[in-house]
Design a protein that fits this description.
The chain is of the alpha/beta class. The protein has a single domain, classed as 3-Layer(aba) Sandwich (Rossmann fold), CATH 3.40.50. The protein is built from five helices and seven strands. A seven-stranded mixed β-sheet has the order 4-3-2-5-6-1-7, with helices on both faces. Helix 2 links the parallel strand 3 and strand 4. The protein starts with a strand and ends with a strand.
């Protein structure tokens, strides 16, 4: 899902970009000169993100914060980003078999909030002309949830990929 209208490609301007999750390091490498802020809620993911940043030579422009994206103070009130990428947990806690592995459990199930909460925080920190890219299931019930969350946050979905 992509919310808000993309006005221009600003990767070459060394603008501050926010990204959530560390599994798209190719984005960091491709956007030479850009500054990245990653928010990771799980210590194991923070450690992997830092390792990846060192490996890719990105530590000077890649800030890794530990905390939940939705928690007040994790992103400063005045921070605005041209790009926010997110891969929030996909399912309400009662909707499936819960893993015994804590990291898998938190990645799959909405234990700290839901996709609408992600939409609200992302919209608050989006720069004028920026956009949000979100990985989320597109089956009808899930699509309705993310569409409602985007709308409630004052955002418009401009493109969907399946």
């Amino acid at each position: 899902m992509v919310w808000r209208e993309l006005v221009s490609n600003r990767a070459h301007r060394a603008r501050p970009w926010q990204r959530h999750w560390h599994d798209r390091d190719d984005l960091c490498v491709a956007a030479a000169g850009a500054r990245f802020v990653t928010v990771e809620a799980q210590p194991e993911s923070v450690a992997l993100a830092r390792k990846s940043a060192r490996y890719n030579g990105l530590t000077e422009r890649y800030e890794i914060r530990e905390g939940d994206f939705r928690e007040p103070g994790v992103l400063r009130d005045e921070e605005r980003f041209d790009l926010i990428t997110a891969s929030p947990p996909y399912f309400p806690p009662e909707s499936g078999v819960r893993s015994e592995h804590p990291q898998r459990l938190a990645c799959r199930f909405e234990l700290r909030g839901n996709v609408a909460d992600y939409c609200a925080v992302a919209a608050k920190h989006l720069a004028l002309g920026g956009f949000i890219a979100c990985v989320f299931p597109t089956e009808p019930a899930q699509l309705t949830r993310v569409e409602s969350g985007a709308k409630d946050a004052g955002s418009v979905i401009v493109r969907k990929r399946r």
